[in-house]
């Protein structure tokens, strides 16, 4: 005589496990409306569309205030790789010095961590591993370049640096 209740329990357990697994995966992979708004934003899409490199870093000239002086070094323009990405609602950034730390980090703040775009879409904000909080004013963005102003509070006196990134 076959015990149907035991056989029924053995067949039900894998089915319930499969149902729970599918439900868990669908919830884990589902996006919220907030995720869609952020990832579909055209400014964010341009920023994360490719890696960037530094074209130049400028500061106002001391002797001629209406002109700029380029302070970036070759290691900044040939070695730095700037990456912006998304991981859920947390953006991940990396300002990497490919010269293994020998490029002047007082000119450009090498770091990595999380980034975001202010609601007014006028600034990029960063929370890095080396610094608690940093902001760069978004001056302009196109498919080929990104121009920001960075108020360097580490320099004395404080200097506003203009950084031009170009797509890599």
Automatic annotation (TrEMBL):
**UniProt keywords, alphabetically:** Signal
The organism is: Filimonas lacunae
| Signal peptide from the UniProt entry | 1-33
What protein does this entry describe? Lipocalin-like domain-containing protein
């Amino acid at each position: 005589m076959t015990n149907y209740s035991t056989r029924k329990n053995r067949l039900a357990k894998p089915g319930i496990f499969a149902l729970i697994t599918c439900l868990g995966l669908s919830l884990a992979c589902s996006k919220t409306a907030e995720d869609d708004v952020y990832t579909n934003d055209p400014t964010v899409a341009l920023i994360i569309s490719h890696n960037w490199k530094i074209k130049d870093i400028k500061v106002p000239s001391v002797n001629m205030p209406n002109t700029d002086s380029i302070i970036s070094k070759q290691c900044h323009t040939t070695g730095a790789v700037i990456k912006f990405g998304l991981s859920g609602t947390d953006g991940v950034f990396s300002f990497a010095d490919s010269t293994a730390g020998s490029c002047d980090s007082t000119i450009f703040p090498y770091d990595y961590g999380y980034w975001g775009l202010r609601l007014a879409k006028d600034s990029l904000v960063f929370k890095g591993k080396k610094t608690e909080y940093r902001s760069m004013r978004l001056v302009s963005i196109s498919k080929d370049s990104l121009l920001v102003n960075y108020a360097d509070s580490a320099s004395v006196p404080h200097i506003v640096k203009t950084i031009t990134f170009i797509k890599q």
